[in-house]
């Protein structure tokens, strides 16, 4: 019997945090600030269509500083470097970016009572 030829599967190495943002900056620097050339550089030279698309999308939507699909990389790298974190601020996880805080529905009220009379009780709402 004859054996089938071996098939090798090549897996992509796991990217380090900030790799996408690094490629974005490299592309813009190589193109000397020209957005169209930067997108072309990312697609052809770096073989990274996601960065190319991020550059094009950012340019067409008004030129945001950090494209939406790369902002989480940058935020995670900078989070521990903030002064507030160094002072010991507590971090609260926000599922889906939302947080519910209980609050009072009404404000405080005040009134006068006659001298020597019992004060009225009230309840917070």
Automatic annotation (TrEMBL):
<protein>
    <submittedName>
        <fullName>Phage major capsid protein</fullName>
    </submittedName>
</protein>
<dbReference type="InterPro" id="IPR024455">
    <property type="entry name" value="Phage_capsid"/>
</dbReference>
<feature type="domain" description="Phage capsid-like C-terminal">
    <location>
        <begin position="62"/>
        <end position="122"/>
    </location>
</feature>
<dbReference type="InterPro" id="IPR054612">
    <property type="entry name" value="Phage_capsid-like_C"/>
</dbReference>
<dbReference type="Pfam" id="PF05065">
    <property type="entry name" value="Phage_capsid"/>
</dbReference>
């Amino acid at each position: 019997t004859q054996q089938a030829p071996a098939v090798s599967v090549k897996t992509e190495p796991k990217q380090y945090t900030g790799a996408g943002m690094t490629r974005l900056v490299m592309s813009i620097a190589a193109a000397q600030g020209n957005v169209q050339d930067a997108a072309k550089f990312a697609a052809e030279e770096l073989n990274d269509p996601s960065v190319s698309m991020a550059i094009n999308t950012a340019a067409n939507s008004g030129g945001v500083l950090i494209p939406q699909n790369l902002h989480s990389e940058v935020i995670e790298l900078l989070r521990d470097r903030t002064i507030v974190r160094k002072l010991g601020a507590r971090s609260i996880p926000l599922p889906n970016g939302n947080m519910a805080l209980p609050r009072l529905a009404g404000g405080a009220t005040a009134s006068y009572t006659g001298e020597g009379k019992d004060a009225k009780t009230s309840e917070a709402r």
